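Reading is simple: each integer encodes one residue's backbone shape. The lines below illustrate:
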Amino acid sequence: MKKDEFKEFVKNNPQLIKYVRNNEMTWQKFYEMYDLYGDKEEAWSTYLKKEEKVETKAGKTAIAGLTLSEVVNWFKNVDLDGLQEGIGNVQRVLGVVQDFSKKDNTSDSKPAYKPRPLYKHFED
């Protein structure tokens, strides 16, 4: 069936997914193209850009679906000053919360009960 062939074609060419997600194309239009042209290279050249991937040992390492190079690029784009400022703000908030919890504990607490020694009588 043509439908199953199209599903297999999409599985082999996951680049098509980004066009649907970006609302540039619909699955219906892709299916119609596949129905008319099949998997001919000329019809799909605008959508299936062949990317030459040089996979290294580091490139194959994936963390939550990201390659090592993508993780490194993400860390390069992190604003360290903003990150440090955010951490400082969190520390200040935690300090304030700790101060409130300490004040609550000291204000509610009564002096500890000390039993009178047995050998003492009234005001001895």
Observations:
- Residues 1-49 form one domain.
- The beta strands are 62-63, 66-67.
